[in-house]
Design goal:
single chain; alpha/beta; Rossmann fold; 7 helices; binds NADP nicotinamide-adenine-dinucleotide phosphate
């Protein structure tokens, strides 16, 4: 098990048995890098067989090798989630190899900082296409191929700022607001099929492209290091939240968007008060 610690001195061991997803198959989009890779690793460490999918075969190959060297069962399929046929191919390759698909993590997304007037028409469209339409494409393909028959789980990786006004993120905020909406609608429509659908809204997480791309701006917006818990969360913190939601521990939870941000989103004044013992 990885023991990546975010809170200094706090060892992060799993509170779940390592076979809770035995015989389950998980598809993680954007699973070759960052949060997606850590989510894949965490599900794999708990018994899931993995399929990771994104555009860059180098990243996918390297990530798959890394996971296999850790003893996990992983396959990869190259795919641009904007293209329904490529998405259907990922799902059918997964079904061909494993005969089932139980857990879908819609993690792939694009991002770049730009003010509303600095965005090109295509720039705005590209992000909505990847983050929102991509999430829809994968959800629909997985539902049709397996989930509607066998039930399962969908977790959409959202963002923390779409319910507020946030500079430089009009395109992402609009797309992720759509993802949150899709999460709730799918939860309502898929509930009768035994499918739970939830979303995680990470804050700025340590050692990720998401945080690196924004550096100071992101830290300020999302309160990295200045949240009530007082430290920037790790990739494992997000992966653990996903793990909880798709495990039986989350059995009565659906249609929710959970912030995993150390409380940054609810800390309005960000005064960073010291403890008063
Ligand atoms: P990342 O490493 O850049 O991950 C994004 C992944 O999406 C990459 O693996 C990328 O792979 C894939 N991707 C992008 N466009 C794609 C497309 N058209 N088709 C298929 N795959 C595509 O960034 P991250 O920071 O881990 O972010 C992961 C998720 O967390 C995103 O949904 C992001 O919005 C969310 N998030 C992250 C943070 C953070 O602090 N890191 C905060 C809030 C929300 P390819 O390039 O190979 O396609």
């Amino acid at each position: 098990m990885s023991e990546e610690a975010s809170e200094p001195g706090l060892e992060k061991r799993s509170v779940f048995h390592d076979d809770i997803f035995e015989d389950r198959v998980a598809l993680i989009t954007g699973g070759g890098t960052g949060l997606g890779l850590e989510i894949a690793r965490t599900l794999g460490e708990h018994g899931a067989r993995l399929c990771i999918a994104s555009r860059k075969t180098d990243n996918l190959e390297a990530a798959c090798r890394e996971l296999e060297e850790e003893g996990l069962d992983c396959m990869w399929v190259a795919c641009d989630i904007r293209e329904p046929e490529q998405v259907e191919n990922v799902v059918s390759e997964t079904m061909n190899r494993h005969g089932r698909l139980d857990i879908v993590i819609n993690n792939a997304a694009g991002n770049f900082p730009a003010p509303v007037t600095g965005l090109s028409y295509n720039g705005f469209k590209a992000i909505v296409d990847i983050d929102l339409r991509g999430t829809y494409n994968v959800t629909k393909a997985a539902f049709e191929a397996s989930l509607k028959k066998n039930g399962g789980h969908i977790v959409n990786i959202s963002a923390p700022f779409q319910n507020q006004g946030v500079s430089l993120q009009a395109h992402v905020a609009a797309a992720k607001a759509g993802v949150d909406s899709l999460t709730r609608t799918c939860a309502v429509e898929f509930g009768p099929y035994g499918i739970r659908v939830n979303a995680i809204a990470p804050g700025g997480m340590e050692d990720t492209e998401g945080l690196a791309r924004f550096a100071d701006a992101q830290k300020e917006i999302q309160g990295g290091g200045s949240n009530p818990l007082g430290y920037i969360g790790s990739k494992r913190d997000v992966a653990n939240a996903v793990l909880f939601l798709v495990s039986d521990a989350g059995s009565y939870i659906t249609g929710q968007v959970f912030a995993v941000d150390g409380g940054a989103g609810i800390d309005m004044l960000k005064m960073n008060l010291p403890r008063v013992d």
